[in-house]
Write a structure and sequence with these properties.
The protein is mostly helical. The protein has a single domain, classed as Winged helix-like DNA-binding domain superfamily/Winged helix DNA-binding domain (Arc Repressor Mutant, subunit A). Helices cover 55% and strands 11% of the residues. Strands 1-3-2 form a 3-stranded antiparallel beta sheet. The longest helix is centred in the C-terminal third of the chain and has 23 residues. The protein starts with a helix and ends in a 16-residue tail after the last helix. 12% of the residues are buried. The C terminus is likely disordered.
């Protein structure tokens, strides 16, 4: 799988995408993200670890008990905001798409 495909695969997870969209407004604590995403603290923390390991978010310790997370690169912010604009224009077509390739995992496809 190409690096670009892995990036977009990582962004396709609903929880990770929700976290990143919540971070568009600026840095947030885990507790803020839990409330914004509507998931459990362990789940949000695991997804943040994944995003941090991949270099998509950075953390900033505020004190012993609080860590703030933010988007690591302005380019990711650009991708997310451009995606939101594209979905505003064309999201209804994507939502109605019935092509089985749209939802099938890449590894499960028979492209050849």
């Amino acid at each position: 799988m190409s690096v670009a495909a892995r990036l977009f695969h990582g962004l396709s997870d609903p929880t990770r995408l929700s976290i990143l969209l919540a971070l568009l407004d600026g840095e947030r604590r885990v507790s803020d993200l839990v409330a914004a995403v509507g998931s459990s603290q362990p789940n949000v923390s695991n997804h943040l670890a994944c995003l941090r390991e991949c270099g998509l978010v950075v953390d900033r310790p505020a004190d012993r008990r609080q860590v703030f997370y933010s988007i690591a690169h302005e380019q990711l912010r650009d991708v997310l905001t451009a995606s939101e604009r594209l979905l505003a224009l064309n999201g209804h077509r994507i939502d109605l798409c019935t092509n089985p390739y749209m939802d099938a995992p890449a590894a499960g496809r028979n492209d050849g």
